[in-house]
Write a structure and sequence with these properties.
The structure is a single chain. By secondary structure, this protein is an alpha+beta fold. The protein has twelve helices and 14 strands. It folds into two domains: 217 residues, no CATH class; 195 residues, no CATH class. 51% of the residues are buried. About 19% of the residues have low confidence. Pfam families: CotH. This is Spore coat protein CotH.
């Protein structure tokens, strides 16, 4: 780790310190709304300690910011700028900062139909017609989704062994839905990303409550999540799981390799099998290509968390992890901010085995704004998996096979008992709700927090 300095407790809480800023900004300031007690607790704490609301401040040159927005508006490219970032009182300079996401950036720029992969390259495809991840306002950069990369310009710069931090977009004010969903995914035994509730301030502006999470693109996350070596591939939102031949160049617009040796061969072989094997071969040999038990658990958890934006949702939201020792692929869960019905303005969700009644909120839950009544899909939306979704070849073939679909049913029954009937899921929700009520009610009103918590609780009850 190569931080510039650790700030003194009193200054962190009360005054805020400035630091030399290579971007030309006036200086790094700490959150003005932290109490001395909160600031003291944050110093030297684990950033993903969920008993605390953490603090991140970002400072950058306004001209750099505007140039970045102009470039995104004109081309869809997500360019990097340099910033000073303070994490729980530790200052880092020359940090890479760029916009993060696709649907979460709707409304920025004049061309909202162009689709880009998450590295900013134009895929040439229309953007997936989903509902977005909440409102964004470029005049209030603390509302935007961001990727913070500590080692973009300074080699080996990291914080607690992590080089990347993702500031998530969400349709709710609290982001409780994604925080709870991520933790439940981890309790199911699947690899998941840790998250932290954060007070985020940009260029001395007001604090906003945001959810910040680990990045699957981070080598350190992969090392912690998977025992064996291998490669991690991200499905781009403008692509699909189709087989496009054996030329790696044909996959550059649909998958990005994030970790491991630069080799798409395992991915291409896997896509060849799931697309081109006949049904008998698929049933007999899928276990030689995919961790089928893990995938059954994945599908069960996406349904149990009512996530309409999963592998068969509008953007193929998933990663594939190739284990070089076993030769198996694992589908890694990603993008849970539309879990539990997407909360306010989301796309709806529910429980129904293989993604059945995802359009209707459970009894007692409030339907998100703009949702079609009585569980009907919104205009133009597929009834399963959200608009443009419901047609991932792997999920479709897996669920069409009686043996594999039975694994999903078994996983759903087991996880319902262990997470929901046991009360563990409610305990997770209660803990997150109490945290935000106790430490962030100045950022989100208590009645809003309680309303959003109650909406999730209705989904948890419906799953029992």
């Amino acid at each position: 780790m190569r931080p510039v300095a650790a700030l003194a407790i009193g200054a962190l809480a009360l005054a805020g310190l400035t630091a030399c800023d290579a971007t030309g900004a006036t200086g790094a300031t700490t959150s003005s709304s932290l109490t001395a007690e909160q600031a003291a607790a944050l110093l030297d704490s684990d950033f993903y300690d969920t008993s605390l609301v953490h603090s991140i401040t970002i400072d950058f040159d306004d001209d750099d910011y505007q140039a970045m927005l102009d470039a995104y508006s004109e081309t869809g490219d997500k360019g990097w700028i340099s910033a000073t970032v303070t994490i729980d009182g530790t200052v880092f300079e020359q940090v890479g900062l760029r916009l993060k996401g696709n649907s979460s950036l709707r409304g920025i720029g004049s061309d909202s139909t162009a689709d880009t992969d998450d590295d900013g390259a134009d895929t040439g495809a229309p953007a997936a017609p989903d509902s977005g991840d909440g409102s964004v306002n470029t005049d209030d950069p603390e509302t935007l989704p961001w990727l913070i990369r500590l080692d973009k310009y300074v080699t080996d710069q990291s914080y607690q062994d992590r080089t990347e931090f993702i500031v998530r977009g969400n349709t709710s004010e609290s982001s409780l839905n994604e925080a709870v969903a991520l933790e439940l995914i981890g309790l199911s035994g699947l690899a998941t990303e840790k998250s932290a509730a954060v007070r985020l301030s940009v260029n001395g502006g007001d604090d906003a409550l945001r959810l910040v999470m680990e990045s699957i693109d981070d080598d350190a996350w992969n090392d912690d999540a998977f025992e064996a070596g291998g490669s991690t591939y991200k499905a781009d939102s403008g692509g699909d799981y189709s087989y496009r031949g054996d030329d790696p160049a044909e996959y550059t617009d649909v998958f990005d390799q994030k970790t491991g040796d630069d080799d798409l061969t395992p991915l291409i072989d896997f896509l060849d099998f799931i697309n081109n094997s006949d049904d008998a071969t698929f049933a007999a040999d899928l276990g030689d290509h995919l961790d089928v038990d893990s995938f059954a658990t994945y599908l069960a958890m996406q349904d149990l968390t009512a996530n309409t934006d999963d592998i068969d949702g509008p953007g193929n939201n998933s990663y594939l992890r190739y284990d070089s020792e076993t030769g198996l692929m694992t589908v890694v869960a990603w993008d849970a901010n539309l879990s539990f019905g997407g909360m306010n303005g989301g796309m709806g969700g529910g429980f129904g085995g293989d993604g059945g009644d995802r359009g209707a909120p459970p009894d007692g839950a409030t339907a998100p704004d703009g949702e079609a009544p009585d569980g009907a899909a919104p205009d133009g939306a597929a009834p399963d998996g959200g608009p443009g979704g419901g047609d991932n070849i792997l999920a479709t073939r897996f669920l069409a096979d009686s043996t594999f679909s039975a694994l999903v049913d078994t996983a759903t029954t087991t996880l319902t008992a262990s997470l929901y009937d046991s009360g563990d899921a409610q305990d997770v929700l209660d803990r997150w709700t109490a945290l935000l009520t106790d430490q962030a009610s100045d950022l989100v009103p208590e009645d809003t927090l309680q309303e959003e918590s109650d909406t999730i609780a209705a989904y948890l009850t419906a799953a029992e």
